[in-house]
């Protein structure tokens, strides 16, 4: 379930309440589905807060109608009223992966920085510390190398998929533990980026977690078919997840002032 699909489900819930005579309000064009700033819900909408005055009812009551209208919607695991009138929504694991990937790939790519090892080391060190000489060495244990390597690995997987004629990577429902963990991290990126939580150091720590999760996901659930195996939809979905991880890593590195080459 993508954000757009969930938004439409929320609007259908509102239309149902209006047509059923339990809510008097004009159905808006958009449900305003967003990632919540707190808690473990995957999505939240404040549509009830917008409708309450027109409906002449408390926002939490309107939110309850929306919650009830989401019951039984495929992909929606749970919906709860929160705060003054928000509706928090949890989607199924596979749907959450698809949504996180689709949301990530819909964003414009980060600008490309030319490679400059000295600048890259200075920028990473300013954010996360580290020994300058050690940060120049391309080896495991060097967080700068590990993040840039994970980015290059994600790009390489997508290139190889294209070479194999697998077609365009497509966001799909995946349910592997490593895939779910990676998708969950990707879903945090807008909040990390927009709030600058933890400053540059927080971004560097986040990128290290994404890099580790991306490599683990690609190892546990390979995006490319093996041997004589035919490419399937699940491979394209895994490639889309890898592509989304590479997109987030490139964006984060750019924001730190570090280059993100496609080849290392």
TrEMBL record:
Annotated GO molecular function terms are: arginine-tRNA ligase activity; ATP binding
The record's InterPro entries line, in alphabetical order, gives: Arg-tRNA-synth_N (IPR005148), Arg-tRNA-synth_N_sf (IPR036695), DALR_anticod-bd (IPR008909), tRNAsynth_Ia_anticodon-bd (IPR009080)
Q: Which Pfam families match?
A: Arg_tRNA_synt_N, DALR_1
Q: Name one GO cellular component term.
A: cytoplasm
Q: Where is the Arginyl tRNA synthetase N-terminal domain?
A: 4-91
Where in this chain does the record put each DALR anticodon binding domain?
147-264
Q: Give a yes or no for keyword Transferase in this entry.
A: no
Question: Mind listing the GO biological process terms from this record?
Answer: arginyl-tRNA aminoacylation
Q: Which UniProt keywords apply?
A: Aminoacyl-tRNA synthetase, ATP-binding, Ligase, Nucleotide-binding
Entry annotated with the keyword Transport:
no
Question: What SUPFAM superfamilies would the database entry show?
Answer: Anticodon-binding domain of a subclass of class I aminoacyl-tRNA synthetases, Arginyl-tRNA synthetase (ArgRS), N-terminal 'additional' domain
State the protein's name: Arginyl-tRNA synthetase
Its source organism is: Streptomyces aidingensis
């Amino acid at each position: 379930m993508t954000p757009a699909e969930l938004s439409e489900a929320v609007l259908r819930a509102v239309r149902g309440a209006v047509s059923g005579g339990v809510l008097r309000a004009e159905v808006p064009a958009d449900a305003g589905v967003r990632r919540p700033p707190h808690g473990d819900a995957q999505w939240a909408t404040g549509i009830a807060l917008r409708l309450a005055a027109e409906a002449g009812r408390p926002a939490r009551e309107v939110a309850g109608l929306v919650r009830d209208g989401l019951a039984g919607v495929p992909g929606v695991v749970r919906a709860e009223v929160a705060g003054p009138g928000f509706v928090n929504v949890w989607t199924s694991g596979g749907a959450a992966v698809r949504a996180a990937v689709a949301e990530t790939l819909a964003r414009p790519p980060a600008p490309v920085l030319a490679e400059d090892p000295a600048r890259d080391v200075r920028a990473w060190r300013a954010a996360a510390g580290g020994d300058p000489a050690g940060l120049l060495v391309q080896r495991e244990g060097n967080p700068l190398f590990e993040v840039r390597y994970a980015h290059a690995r994600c790009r390489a997987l997508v290139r190889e998929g294209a070479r194999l004629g697998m077609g365009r990577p497509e966001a799909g429902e995946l349910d592997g533990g490593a895939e779910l963990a990676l998708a969950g991290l990707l879903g945090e990126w807008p909040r990390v980026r927009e709030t600058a939580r933890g400053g540059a150091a927080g971004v560097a720590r986040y990128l290290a977690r994404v890099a580790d999760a991306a490599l683990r996901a690609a190892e546990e659930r390979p995006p490319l078919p093996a041997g004589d195996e035919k490419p399937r939809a699940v491979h394209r979905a895994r490639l889309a997840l890898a592509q989304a991880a590479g997109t987030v890593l490139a964006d984060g590195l750019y924001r730190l002032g570090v280059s993100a080459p496609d080849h290392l």
